[in-house]
Write a structure and sequence with these properties.
mainly alpha
C-alpha cells in the first residue's frame, strides 16, 4: 500500500472512531452504564474528530497541493504524519479512560509540538508563488499557532484561579475559535481556491482577505462575552460578523466568473457535497449574524443543543463537506464507486437529520416545551447513518486502486 493511500485510510479510521464515540454518547442517554464516563468520552470524541480527522486530512491535502513533489517525498513528511497519528491514538485511548489527566495531556501536548514542526515545514517548503490560495494557506498556519496560545494558558489558569475561572474558560474558547474559524476554515478555503484553475481577480481577493482576517480576529469576542459582561465586546462581535458577511460576498464575487466552468466539470456526487458545504457555510454566517441581538447571543450558548448543532454545522457540514468535495474532485475518492455514493449519501442524510433534530429540540427548550417525543431514540438512529456512511466510504477507499492515490 502506498503511503498516501495509507494516510487517507488512517484519517477516515480516526473519523470513524470519533463518530463511534459520538454514537456511544447518544446510546448512554438511553442505556447509562457505570463503567463509561460520559464527559471523558466527550473529550475523546472532540479531540479525535478535530486532531485525528480534520487536522490530519488537511495535512494530507496541503502536502499534496502545496508542497512540490520533490519536497513532499522527503521522509520527514511520512514520519511526521505517523508520529502525529501516534499522538491521536494515545488520545483515543487515554481520554475515555482518564479524561484530562497525565497521559491525555502528554499526547495532546505532543500533537501541538508536532503541529509546530508541520507549520515550519509548510512555511519552508510550500510553493513560493504568492498566489491567493498560498496567501490564505500561510494565514491559516499563523492562526493555528495563535490558537495554541490558549492551550499554554490552561496550566497557569488552573494553578492560579482554578477550572471554574473566567481565565480558564476564555483560554479554551480562544483555542477553539482560532482552530475552527482560523486554522481549519482558512486551510479549507486555501485548498478549495486551489481547485480553481483560472487567475483570480486581485482587487476582490485583497478585499476578501482583509475583511476575513479582521472578522476572524474580532469575532473571538463572542465567546469571551460569555464570561465577561461588557457591552463593548457585543459591539466588537457585531462589527466582526458584519465584516464576515462582507468577506464572503467578496469571495463569491471573486469566484463568480469561474463558477459555471467549475461546476460543469464536477460529477453529481461532488456537486452534492460542495452544495452541502456552501449551504452550511451560509447557515453558519446567518446564525452568527443573529448573535448581534443580545437575547439570541445569550440563548446560543445556554442551550446545549444549539452549541452541539453549531459545532457539527462547522465540522461536519462546512469543513468535512469541502474536504469530501476536494477528495472527490481530484479522484482521491472514487466518484464511480457505488459503495462510496451510498456511503456519502448515508453520511449526508445522517448529518442533515441530526442537525434538524438538534436545532428543533433546542427551539423546544427555548420555548420551554420540554423534550420532543422519542428525541433520544431518533438522534441515536440518525447518528447510526453517519457511522454507516463512513464505514462504506472506508470500504470504497480500501477497494479503490488508482494512480490518484499514489505519491503524485
Amino acid at each position: 500500500m502506498n503511503s498516501q493511500k495509507s494516510w487517507i485510510i488512517c484519517c477516515f479510521f480516526n473519523f470513524l472512531i470519533a463518530c463511534t464515540f459520538g454514537l456511544v454518547m447518544r446510546l448512554l442517554y438511553l442505556f447509562p452504564v457505570d463503567f463509561i464516563n460520559y464527559s471523558f468520552l466527550l473529550h475523546a470524541h472532540s479531540h479525535v474528530a478535530m486532531l485525528g480527522w480534520v487536522y490530519l486530512i488537511v495535512y494530507v491535502l496541503i502536502v499534496r497541493f502545496f508542497i512540490p513533489k520533490e519536497k513532499s517525498q522527503k521522509p520527514i513528511y511520512n514520519r511526521l504524519f505517523w508520529l502525529t497519528e501516534f499522538s491521536v491514538i494515545g488520545m483515543m485511548i487515554a481520554f475515555p479512560i482518564q479524561g484530562y489527566a497525565l497521559f491525555s495531556i502528554i499526547f495532546s501536548t505532543m500533537h501541538i509540538l508536532l503541529s509546530y514542526v508541520f507549520c515550519r515545514l509548510v512555511w519552508k517548503d510550500s510553493l513560493n508563488d504568492k498566489s491567493p490560495s498560498q496567501k490564505i494557506l500561510l494565514v491559516s498556519v499563523l492562526f493555528m499557532i495563535l490558537s495554541t496560545f490558549g492551550v499554554w494558558c490552561l496550566g497557569p489558569a488552573v494553578s492560579t484561579l482554578g477550572k471554574q475561572s473566567a481565565f480558564y474558560q476564555i483560554a479554551i474558547q480562544f483555542f477553539l475559535h482560532f482552530q475552527f474559524n482560523g486554522w481549519f476554515l482558512w486551510a479549507i478555503l486555501a485548498l478549495f481556491l486551489k481547485q480553481f484553475q483560472q487567475k483570480i481577480e486581485e482587487k476582490q481577493f485583497k478585499k476578501f482577505y482583509f475583511l476575513l482576517i479582521t472578522s476572524t480576529l474580532l469575532t473571538v469576542t463572542f465567546p469571551i462575552r460569555w464570561f465577561i459582561e461588557n457591552d463593548i465586546l457585543n459591539v466588537i462581535n457585531a462589527f466582526g460578523v458584519i465584516l464576515q458577511l462582507m468577506a464572503f460576498i467578496s469571495f463569491y464575487r471573486m469566484l463568480k466568473p469561474q463558477i459555471n466552468s467549475f461546476t460543469s466539470s464536477l460529477d453529481k456526487i461532488t456537486k452534492l457535497v460542495y452544495c452541502l458545504a456552501v449551504f452550511s457555510l451560509g447557515l453558519k454566517i446567518g446564525i452568527q449574524l443573529l448573535t448581534i441581538f443580545p437575547n439570541i447571543a445569550e440563548v446560543s450558548h445556554q442551550i446545549r443543543n444549539f452549541v452541539i448543532g453549531f459545532i457539527h454545522l462547522t465540522t461536519l457540514g462546512i469543513i468535512t463537506g469541502f474536504l469530501f468535495g476536494i477528495l472527490l474532485q481530484n479522484k482521491i475518492l472514487s466518484a464511480d464507486s457505488s459503495i462510496l455514493k451510498i456511503g456519502v449519501k448515508c453520511f449526508i442524510g445522517g448529518y442533515i437529520l441530526t442537525e434538524i433534530l438538534l436545532f428543533v429540540q433546542g427551539w423546544f427548550l427555548f420555548l420551554e416545551k420540554g423534550i420532543i417525543p422519542f428525541y433520544y431514540q431518533n438522534i441515536l438512529i440518525f447518528s447510526i447513518f453517519l457511522v454507516l456512511g463512513l464505514v462504506l466510504i472506508m470500504l470504497s477507499i480500501i477497494n479503490f486502486k488508482s494512480h490518484n492515490l499514489s505519491n503524485r
